[in-house]
UniProtKB/TrEMBL annotation, chain A:
Residues 90-218 form the GST C-terminal domain. GO terms for cellular component: cytoplasm. Keywords: Transferase. It comes from Rhynchospora tenuis. Its EC number is 2.5.1.18. InterPro entries: Glutathione-S-Trfase_C-like, Glutathione-S-Trfase_C_sf, Glutathione_S-Trfase, Glutathione_S-Trfase_N, GST_C, GST_C_Tau, Omega/Tau-like, Thioredoxin-like_sf. The lineage of its organism: Eukaryota, Viridiplantae, Streptophyta, Embryophyta, Tracheophyta. One of its GO terms (molecular function) is glutathione transferase activity. This is Probable glutathione S-transferase GSTU1. Conjugation of reduced glutathione to a wide number of exogenous and endogenous hydrophobic electrophiles. PANTHER family: GLUTATHIONE S-TRANSFERASE U19 (PTHR11260:SF781), GLUTATHIONE S-TRANSFERASE, GST, SUPERFAMILY, GST DOMAIN CONTAINING (PTHR11260). Belongs to the GST superfamily. The keyword Transferase applies. Residues 5-84 form the GST N-terminal domain. One of its GO terms (biological process) is glutathione metabolic process.
UniProtKB/TrEMBL annotation, chain B:
It catalyses: RX + glutathione = an S-substituted glutathione + a halide anion + H(+). Its EC number is 2.5.1.18. It comes from Rhynchospora tenuis. GO terms for cellular component: cytoplasm. This is glutathione transferase. Residues 91-219 form the GST C-terminal domain.
Length: 221, 233
């Protein structure tokens, strides 16, 4: 990579992991160049910037690559610290934020994928798990405006991209997020009032179209 | 300087690399703590303090629980800032790199250890699995060259976040070499890491919490027999 000044993001339009980075950059008002990757034909730049995993998102700042979405969000938060702090200042609150963002990371995408990839009993098991995950997150949110309290924070950034997948999860597994976790449903609507989120997330129906495309590709009925 | 009301308890067990990470961090900051040793049956306190995963380590600081080993290490670093050296690098980019490699280690090494542990000594599958682990370490060797910049540790002159993440796995790695009769810390393949591992294990903050290889091997036998007879916890 040339040591050019500036910020570039290697990404894939519907990736919730990429969206975390986009939302963080938008919250901070950072100008950057967005580069859409074709995941079936990864660019030289991506392979060079993330040789270990060859995955998006990759943030390239002044020629230096940062990989892994939550690591990218923490990096963005630390470098552009003058605006929109995404982490609490208290170490205990920070530890809690990291814990729950990590929980979202470990659980939501994998469980969500099982909802549309699997059928029958396995899908039912995944559905049960997703409901548990949503209810745990709901308990964590409580009556707060955001996971970060009054300010939109790290856990909000980590989780909000998955809200555009709720419709897909609901349709594939036949349940309602609002039914099992109403506070989460309301939180999702509140987040959409933020420009950074509204401009980054795709319409849930469009995400569902993508899920249907994946189902065909993986030969799922 | 630590003030009053600084009661630190650690729920853990001496063989666990994840628990060791926290102990090393506490040692680096010269902090006293009460070790609440877990047995194979999970304590009420553990289940209450970590209801989400029900796993150790859990640090309880003035009654408040913190879970996930590397999150605890960061918490310790951020809470006790005047005691001892900084555990995380000060530069944001260096921090991102340390976190990246820590995630890589956590993604690969605990699984590799679990796979190797029950394998038959000198077996073909053990050899194959050991080769995979060595290949993983060869990737980390490159990271070591870049991060250490010629100094003794990933963190520079003193051990840091990434040293702790990887170094805590050494007790199991050495135990597996003995138990399963495989070679992992091969000087010809990962020279930097082999020298680093010797320095790490000799470090003041590490020595007393790094179990001896023979003790780990004995424990492994107990663990394997417990796992064979009880359902997954």
């Amino acid at each position: 990579m040339a040591s050019e000044k500036g910020v570039m993001l290697l990404d894939f339009w519907v990736s919730p992991f990429g969206q975390r980075a986009r939302i963080a950059l938008a919250e901070k008002g950072v100008q950057y160049e967005y580069k859409e990757e074709n995941l079936t034909e990864k660019s030289e730049l991506l392979l060079k910037a993330n040789p270990v995993h060859k995955k998006i998102p990759v943030l390239i700042h002044d020629g230096k690559p940062v990989c892994e979405s939550l690591i990218i969000v923490e990096y963005i938060n630390e470098v552009w610290s003058d605006k929109a702090p995404l982490m609490p200042s208290d170490p205990y609150q920070k530890a809690q934020a990291r814990f729950w963002a990590d929980f979202v990371d470990k659980k939501v995408y994998d469980c969500g994928s099982r909802l549309w990839k699997l059928k029958g009993e396995e899908q039912q098991a995944a559905k049960k798990e997703m409901i548990e995950i949503l209810q745990l997150l709901e308990a964590q949110l409580g009556d707060k405006k955001y996971f970060g309290g009054d300010s939109f924070g790290f856990v909000d950034v980590a989780f909000v991209p998955f809200t555009s997948w709720f419709y897909s999860y609901e349709t594939c597994a036949n349940f309602s997020v609002e039914g099992v976790a109403p506070k989460i449903a309301q939180w999702a609507k509140r987040c959409m009032e933020r420009e950074s989120v509204a401009k980054t997330l795709y319409d849930p129906k469009k995400v569902y179209e993508f899920v249907c495309f994946l189902k065909k590709k993986f030969g799922v009925e | 300087m630590t003030s009053e009301g600084n009661e630190i308890k650690l729920i853990g067990a001496w063989p666990s690399p994840f628990v060791m990470r926290v102990r090393i961090a506490l040692n680096l900051k010269k902090l006293g703590y009460e070790m609440l040793e877990e047995t194979f049956k999970k304590s009420e306190l553990l289940l209450k303090s970590n209801p989400v995963y029900k796993k150790m380590p859990v640090l309880i600081h003035d009654g408040k629980p913190i879970c996930e080993s590397m999150i605890i290490v960061e918490y310790i670093d951020e809470t006790w800032t005047s005691d001892g050296a900084s555990i995380l690098p000060s530069d944001s980019y260096d921090r991102a790199i340390a976190r990246f490699w820590t995630a890589y280690i956590d993604n690969k090494i605990p699984d590799a250890i679990s796979k190797l542990r029950p394998m038959v000594r000198g077996s073909v599958e053990a050899e194959a699995e050991a080769e995979k682990l060595v290949a993983t370490l060869q990737v980390i060797e490159e990271a070591f060259e870049k991060c250490s910049k010629g100094q003794s540790f990933f963190g520079g002159n003193n051990i840091g976040y990434l040293d702790i993440a990887l170094g805590s796995c050494l007790a199991w790695i050495k135990a597996l070499e003995k138990m399963v009769e495989i070679k992992i810390l091969i000087k010809e393949k990962i020279p930097g890491l082999v020298s680093w591992s010797e320095r790490f294990c000799a470090h003041d903050a590490v020595r007393e919490v790094m179990p001896e290889t023979d003790k780990m091997v004995e424990f492994a036998k107990v663990l394997l027999s417990v796992m064979a007879t009880t359902p997954a916890n």
